[in-house]
Specification:
- The protein is mainly α and 117 residues long.
- The protein has two domains: 64 residues, no CATH class; 32 residues.
- 34% of the residues lie in helices and 5% in strands.
- It has three helices and two strands; from the N terminus they run E-H-H-E-H.
- The chain has a two-stranded antiparallel ribbon.
- The longest helix has 23 residues.
- The protein starts with 8 loop residues before the first strand and ends in a 15-residue tail after the last helix.
Amino acid sequence: MPQEEKQTFEFLDKNSCIDCDKCVKVCPIDDLDIKAGFDMRCVQCGLCESACESVMTKLNKTSLISKKFKDRNILKSFSKKGYILGIIVFIVMIISIIYILDSSNLDNCYFVNKNLY
């Protein structure tokens, strides 16, 4: 569930809104109006932003709905310890795969009854 402090989209200026309600009509959630403010039901799909931008561009104005966190990136959420741990796990997995493929450990993966193969 989205949290208010992590909300992605926000309605900027109620006074500049032309009340076309395109943002409300395109929303996949019934009875959700971004102009009323944050709502926990928002799935943060961005359709409202696109709808507002298409209407306001025709009027030579800027969109009234924008991303609150424009530089949100999943890689920025990891700490340095997380990166190091991920690299170590990746290296161990690669070494394990190479060891298994190069050794005779796969020779033991035959059927018990050799008449079947």
